[in-house]
Write a sequence for this structure.
DNA sequence: TTAAGGTAGATGCAAACGCATGAACTTCGA
DNA sequence: TCGAAGTTCATGCGTTTGCATCTACCTTAA
């Protein structure tokens, strides 16, 4: 007997959730989050990945926070001199967010240490092939769009 | 050129994180969390998976919350009649947690609807083989135990 | 047996969060 | 061109979270 497809989907999702929770707890327990919390690091990392300035709502896509919470988190990071907020000249409603020198430095410092822990946890548990599979699967899951009204795909973020 | 193993590990972890955030946002947007929030459902689901009563700290392993936060979340669920808390006869410090009939009913109701959304999202994005791979990979990641003793901190730059 | 140390859960308090809403600006349709 | 609708971010407010700490109980060893 074969598991139904939807059951398989749910069990694999639960497996992802369990892995996520277990590793997040493990990473959170590491003594590297004194200057920058994990959620703050998430924002700094997202900013560091982008070339130029990002808009707040773009940042919100990658971060699991409500818009007001993200707005205030960025405000706090700006007050601490890690993030720079400037009005967007092309859209009077928007902000352009970028890392300051201090923010980039903090991201690099914490990121380097965190990467060590991630590498230990993941590389110890998985083979190279499994890591490649996970990378591919994650991309597909993240790329899958919700059943939407507009079916026009954005060219640059097309699903691979 | 081949990616280093630790770099591959970090990129696959980031892929998992991105998928997790994207799908969580999508699920959170579904109109099924009126009676029970997502985090509350997480607790109800964990309780429903177990046979008998669980201890609070066991519950905490699967849920991404601090001990005080979990303690109060369970307290609120108990006040709403969804969870039953009784002192553990075998350990005077501990609690035995279990679902009430109403709690089991709420879990079934919300869980059924949620499973539909999960199945749609995951099964649409992945093949059967990929779902099986994800299930296996997640289990390995969650099962991997942290090293019993911390080794000497390594240089950050050497890893990537 | 008993004191020292460890573990499970609760509680005070400040920080952070989500929801609802507001203000400023852009976009769209007539 | 102009008003209505949509978008982007900020703010008020009640709720929830995390940190530090406390109490109660268990475990260990002398």
């Amino acid at each position: 007997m074969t598991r139904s497809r939807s059951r398989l989907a749910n069990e694999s999702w639960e497996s992802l959730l369990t892995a996520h929770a277990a590793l997040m707890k493990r990473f959170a327990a590491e003594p590297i989050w004194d200057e920058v919390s994990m959620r703050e690091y998430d924002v700094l990392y997202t900013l560091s990945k982008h070339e130029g300035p990002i808009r707040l709502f773009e940042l919100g896509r990658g971060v699991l926070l409500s818009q007001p919470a993200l707005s205030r988190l960025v405000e706090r990071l700006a007050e601490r001199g890690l993030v720079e907020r400037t009005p967007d000249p092309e859209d009077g409603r928007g902000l352009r967010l970028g890392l300051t020198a201090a923010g980039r430095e903090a991201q690099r410092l914490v990121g380097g240490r965190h990467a060590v822990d991630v590498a230990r946890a993941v590389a110890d548990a998985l083979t190279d092939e499994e890591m490649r599979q996970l990378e591919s699967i994650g991309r597909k899951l993240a790329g899958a769009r919700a059943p939407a009204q507009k079916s026009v795909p954005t060219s640059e973020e097309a699903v691979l």
User: Anything to note?
Assistant: The two ends of chain B are 14 Å apart (CA to CA). The longest strand of chain B covers residues 83-87.
